[in-house]
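Private note to self, pasted from the team thread so I don't lose it. Backbone tokens:
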């Protein structure tokens, strides 16, 4: 049995790097992830571009440290590459894989809820 200090050690490969899909894919509601995954199957890359644009209205970049602008740009270029490479089938498979990641990312991301409490001051 390893001591607790060794078990809790974080290795560099435990953390996703700046170019991994987990960092680039925005965290979105499940219904939107399913729609964009379907669009990625039918129109490779378009769902990825729309996923990037979704951070402007209904998705977020999570705690990856990525800004909204960086997420939009990264997803735009990835989607464009998927669209161009779909002519040789690689982009279509890549697009389907990212659609799958949309759904899994939206299911596994921590849910943030906000509760507003309104109190009245006695007169």
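Design output:
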């Amino acid at each position: 049995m390893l001591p607790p200090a060794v078990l809790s050690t974080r290795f560099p490969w435990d953390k996703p790097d700046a170019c991994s899909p987990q960092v680039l894919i925005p965290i979105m509601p499940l219904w939107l992830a399913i729609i964009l995954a379907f669009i990625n199957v039918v129109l490779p890359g378009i769902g990825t571009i729309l996923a990037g644009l979704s951070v402007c209205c209904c998705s977020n970049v999570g705690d990856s440290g990525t800004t909204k602008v960086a997420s939009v740009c990264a997803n735009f270029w990835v989607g464009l590459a998927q669209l161009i490479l779909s002519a040789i089938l690689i982009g279509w498979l890549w697009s389907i894989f990212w659609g799958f990641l949309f759904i899994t990312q939206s299911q596994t991301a921590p849910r943030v809820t906000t509760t507003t409490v309104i109190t009245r001051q006695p007169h």
